[in-house]
Amino acid sequence: SLLDPKYYSVAELLLATLEDLLEVHLKTFKWHLTQDVLEGFRHIPVSQLENADRLDNAKKMVETYGPEGAVKISIEILRKMNQNQLSDRLKNHYNEGETTEAAD
């Protein structure tokens, strides 16, 4: 549910990650979201991201893919963009938050 604390923490984590992308890179990131990046993950329609700012983007991803999926697809996109430092940081921060809970 959207009130799930995990939803908020992941949305915040994604927002922090997107804050570190320049505007031009954010555009590329959003473009990737409208493509089929990972098997089993449907793309997000262009119209839903067109005027989305970083926060909208983060929330939309968690709504569409769930917390774990949103992190997974973000890491994949960042790697495609050669933003390896950001993708590693996202992965590490997410895993730190996950260690206390068993994955379902």
From TrEMBL:
Q: Which InterPro entries match?
A: DAPIN, DEATH-like_dom_sf
A Pfam family in this protein? PYRIN
Q: What is the lineage of its organism?
A: Eukaryota, Metazoa, Chordata, Craniata, Vertebrata
* Record-linked Gene3D superfamilies: Death Domain, Fas
Report the domain of life of the source organism: Eukaryota
Q: What protein is this chain from?
A: Pyrin domain-containing protein
**Annotated ranges, domain Pyrin:** 3-96
